[in-house]
Design goal:
By secondary structure, the protein is α/β, with parallel strands linked by helices. Helices cover about 30% and strands about 25% of the residues. The protein is built from six helices and ten strands, in the order βββαβαβαβββαβαβα. The strands form two sheets. It has a five-stranded mixed sheet, sandwiched between helices. α3 crosses α6. The longest helix is centred in the middle third of the chain and has 18 residues. The termini are far apart.
């Protein structure tokens, strides 16, 4: 299955394409950049670049894959909107995965036997003392739901399960669990979603029509008091 995949949820913007070459072997091309802003401006040129590098056109694709969140509101919105637009223009099906599930896929590949019967958790900083968390139980083939939790509640959710925590909030999450008496260790603390991992996952994902953003928390932006509109008299 020839797949174009991309992610804009957290720090990086990444795009990848995965296809079968003339000899039947899988081929991959990918680009990834860390960006604090400008995801919308960079994403479409990046998609064009990976497709040109692969020598493929939209007519050669069979599926589009996108991360649907959680992450920054702007980043999640940019990715999902781009996937919807490309699907509308091309008629291709779209599949979605959480940014945490993509990092989990990467962590399984990187850690392998080092997980040693431990639960794998992916943690990303949701700010204000909160974390985004998704778990893969030892021996399981699919992850649980992505959740938003206060940092101090993670230990209660994990209970007595030994856990390896990866991702951008792994260090502080593992420290909070250990402080509560849990068995937690941090690994791959610089891990970020990569569209190449999403492209490898895409064949096993169910199409979503249309893909929907997974924010998990309300926006931080509030109207300024002096600019708010007064209520109409009742």
């Amino acid at each position: 299955m020839n797949v174009l995949a991309f992610d804009t949820c957290l720090g990086p913007v990444s795009a990848a394409i995965r296809w079968r070459g003339a000899g039947g072997a899988w081929q991959e091309r990918g680009l990834r950049e860390m960006r604090e802003r400008g995801q919308a401006e960079r994403l479409m040129p990046m998609l064009a670049d990976v497709m040109a590098d692969a020598g493929l056109a939209f007519g050669d694709l069979e599926r589009i894959a996108v991360t649907v969140g959680p992450g920054s509101f702007t980043g999640v919105r940019v990715g999902v909107a781009a996937a919807r637009g490309l699907a509308l223009a091309s008629g291709l099906p779209v599949v979605g995965a959480t940014s945490l599930a993509v990092m989990m896929h990467q962590a399984v590949d990187l850690l392998g036997p080092a997980l040693d019967q431990r639960v794998l958790a992916v943690a990303a900083d949701a700010r204000r003392g909160m974390v985004y968390l998704q778990l893969l139980a030892s021996g399981a083939t699919s992850a649980g739901e992505a959740t938003l939790l206060p940092l101090e509640d993670v230990a209660a959710v994990l209970g007595e399960m030994p856990v390896t925590i990866v991702g951008p909030a792994a260090q502080m999450t593992a420290a909070a669990v250990a402080a509560a008496g849990g068995d937690a260790k941090a690994a791959l603390t610089d891990l970020q979603p990569d569209a190449r991992a999403l492209a490898r996952m895409a064949a096993g994902l169910a199409p979503a029509s249309p893909p929907r953003p997974l924010y998990l928390r309300p926006p931080d932006v509030k109207p300024q008091a002096e600019h708010s509109l007064s209520r109409a008299p009742s």
